[in-house]
Design brief:
This is AsnC family transcriptional regulator. The chain is of the alpha+beta class. It is built from eleven helices and twelve strands. Helix 1 packs across helix 3, helix 2 packs across helix 3 and helix 8 crosses helix 9.
Length: about 325
């Protein structure tokens, strides 16, 4: 069972994913050993993972959001086939079990239908499909992803963890080299792997590991995130909101929605409903209150649609298996 300290440690990791356990303990008023023990228990249980992520733009890839309406009796096999593909970054089954929502990484020049359906068995499973470009993620200041589970950091605690506002990337994205592959693979599995562990995996010195991480991080090529499994924290309703916002309000509206603690992700897309937001709440009542209070107060939203997730399959860097977050197998 998770408790208030677990929630606080999760919130701390969202603010500073690679903060040392000594600092995590100091910020939360516990010992370094207690902070480490709580973190490892959460990770072993599959509630959370710290992951290192490479910006797909360094490989010339964009992200596309697909909605696939399927025959209900065929949605499971099709969803599982999509989930196994490395170019699928996110996948879930929604809307009563007849819709698959997924995010595809593919070059801008790719033909949309071809990029999704290649390598899949041809069948009559797909009834309808739309694919739209994810134009812009709303990563506004104060938007830490989903924090609706609780936990709170004061400005002083955030300052202690980060040293101040996160700097903008120092320059153009830095394409990883073949030598970087073991480093990046290790961080994709465990974003908190130490310099010593990374040196052992790469054959580099700890100094070289530190310098390469600094170069990749400062350019924006490498970032860190927390994958969370809300269901294990008592939050069982997950919905994708498809919002329609006038261009004049797009930036302000998207930034404001991204700051909501119920929102795990918000981004602008090329669809008729041009803002996508992933929302997690405890139950239907809490979701209704979110719609009628927080979302209703945001100016610029002209219309909305809702897809309720019924099965979580894959998110940013994790598969969901047997109710746990796990690292995807290579391939």
């Amino acid at each position: 069972m998770t408790d208030a300290l677990d929630m606080q440690i999760l919130r701390t990791l969202q603010c500073a994913p690679r903060a040392p356990f000594r600092l995590i303990g100091e910020v939360n008023g516990v010992s370094e050993q207690t902070a480490a023990r709580r973190y490892h228990a959460l990770r072993r249980s599959g509630v959370m993972r710290v992951v290192g992520l490479v910006d797909p733009a360094v490989h010339g890839e964009a992200q596309w959001v697909a909605r696939i309406r399927c025959r209900p009796d065929r949605v499971g096999p099709l969803a599982d086939a999509l989930t196994r593909r490395p170019d699928i970054a996110y996948a879930s089954i929604a809307s009563g079990g007849s819709e698959i929502i997924c995010v595809i990484r593919s070059p801008l020049a790719a033909q949309r239908e071809g990029m999704l359906l290649q390598q899949l068995p041809r069948s009559a499973a797909v009834l309808d499909m739309s694919i739209d470009l994810l134009i812009h993620p709303f990563d506004s200041p104060g938007a830490a992803g989903w924090t609706g589970y609780g936990g709170h950091l004061t400005p002083e605690q955030e300052q202690a963890l980060t040293g101040g506002p996160s700097p903008a990337p120092a320059g153009p994205l830095l394409p990883p080299t073949a030598e970087d592959v073991p480093l990046l693979d290790a961080l994709a599995e465990d974003g908190r792997a130490s310099h010593t562990q990374l040196a052992g995996l790469t054959g580099w010195s700890k100094g070289r590991v530190a310098r390469r991480l600094e170069a990749l991080e400062s350019s924006g090529t490498l970032s860190y995130d927390i994958d969370l499994l809300p269901e294990r924290l008592g939050y069982h309703l997950n919905a994708t909101l498809w919002l329609r916002v006038a261009p004049a309000h797009l930036e302000r509206t998207g930034q404001e929605i991204a700051r909501h603690e119920e929102v795990a992700f918000a981004g602008a897309t090329s669809g008729d409903h041009n803002v996508l937001a992933i929302v997690t709440c405890r139950d239907a009542g809490a979701f209704y209150r979110y719609l009628t209070t927080r979302l209703a107060a945001v100016p610029g939203v002209d219309a909305y649609g809702v897809s309720i997730r019924v099965r979580r399959l894959k998110q940013a860097a994790s598969l969901i298996a047997h109710g746990r977050l796990v690292h995807p197998a290579p391939g």
